[in-house]
Amino acid sequence: MINDPLRTFVTVVEHKDLSRAAEELYLSNPNVSLQIQSLEEELGTKLVNYSPKHLELTQSGEIYYGYAKQMLLLQDKAQQEIKQLSNVVTGTLKVGASYTIGEYIMPFVVAEFAAQYPKVEIETSIANTEEIIQAVRADRLDIAFVEGEVNHSDIEIHPIMEDELILVVPNQHPLSRLPIVTAEHLQDQVWILRESGSGTRSFLNELIKEWGINVRKTYIFGSGQAVKQAVIAGLGIALVPRLIVRKELNAKELKSVRIKGKRLTRSFNLIGPKNHESSEAMEAFTEQLFALESTKIGQKRNG
């Protein structure tokens, strides 16, 4: 329950609806009205006019709203700085990741952060790249990791490491006997694909279009783990991030084949809403992430 007339007033103005403001603040409608009334009595002026259909600010209310916003921002900043004196970072952080990063990198990043900031509650979400991007745009996530391109003007993007994609084939596949393959060798093959919306799927779609590859048949799976198991089972060939098949390559459960004249790379990106007010927890998480070397993450991942 919020008992702060200033914050209550700002919330009412921003919602333009007393009931919706009361719901957000976990207050009753009469309690919200009383807090607004106490402000008006303190200031000696009417701030808000109510009607059955809408809410209007008076001229005094318009002036006071601008200053109230500034006062709340200063209040929040002061509280953060006071907390920093004891070096205690608290709060909740909602972190998302596309499947490849979420399954193979994010656990190590979160573990490193949690060890340093144990009082931060971390909620993680893993989905395909497009779903994670939309969750960031809808403010359901504070920050996220995705692979490949992000083409949205309302999202801030920071590349954090490079990802290499490689062609993997079953051990008994005809292509497994070739040291190097060309676009011609890839014609009329059976491909194992990720689902639509996956960053890896988008990358392969562009490659198939660029090289004019005719695809004989496809099988679609919803995770990188399922894709590599399908290749091991002999179902077809696939383009996958190298980091997800290192153990299988070392165990000789499948084989990677080099594509002539091509090293296929893309960025793993850190994304967040543009012009979003950063929390102390988010700033600490971002700072620690950029302090981590990708080689360090890689050593943990393969150890």
UniProtKB/TrEMBL annotation:
Gene3D superfamilies recorded: 3.40.190.290, Winged helix-like DNA-binding domain superfamily/Winged helix DNA-binding domain
Keywords, in A-Z order: DNA-binding, Transcription, Transcription regulation
Domain HTH lysR-type: 1-58
Highest taxon listed in the record's lineage: Bacteria
GO MF annotations, alphabetized: DNA-binding transcription factor activity; transcription cis-regulatory region binding
SUPFAM superfamilies named among the record's database cross-references: Periplasmic binding protein-like II, Winged helix' DNA-binding domain
PANTHER family: HTH-TYPE TRANSCRIPTIONAL REGULATOR, HTH-TYPE TRANSCRIPTIONAL REGULATOR CYSL
Protein family: Belongs to the LysR transcriptional regulatory family.
Protein name (record): LysR family transcriptional regulator
UniProt source species: Desulfosporosinus fructosivorans
Organism classification: Bacteria, Bacillati, Bacillota, Clostridia, Eubacteriales
